[in-house]
Specification:
This protein has 89 residues and is of the alpha+beta class. A five-stranded antiparallel sheet has the order 1-5-4-3-2. Helix 1 runs antiparallel to helix 3. The longest helix has 8 residues.
């Protein structure tokens, strides 16, 4: 519940450009961070959010149908709550 609240109140930093053919690099980046996966079902659309919480920012990848969007967020509350529950791989 608090994760969703912190995520919705996060500040938008920037959108990341995704060029055709690079979608898989964003959906499965080479990192040791295990993402939070949020599945949302809107009236006609299913969306997946992959949330990677790093020390200085939050990296989000949004996927619906065959489209992919990526952006960075900033939320001290979300970063603090996720780093306290982190698992190192």
């Amino acid at each position: 519940m608090s994760f969703t609240d912190y995520f919705n109140k996060a500040s938008f930093l920037e959108r990341n450009d995704i060029f055709p053919g690079d979608e898989k690099l964003f959906l499965r980046p080479e990192t040791n961070i295990i993402p939070f996966i949020i599945n949302v079902k809107n009236s006609k659309r299913d969306m997946n959010f992959f949330v990677y919480c790093e020390d200085d920012q939050i990296f989000v990848v949004k996927q619906w149908k065959k489209k992919v969007a990526s952006y960075n967020l900033r939320s001290d509350n979300l970063q603090n709550s996720t780093t306290s529950n982190c698992i190192n791989v």
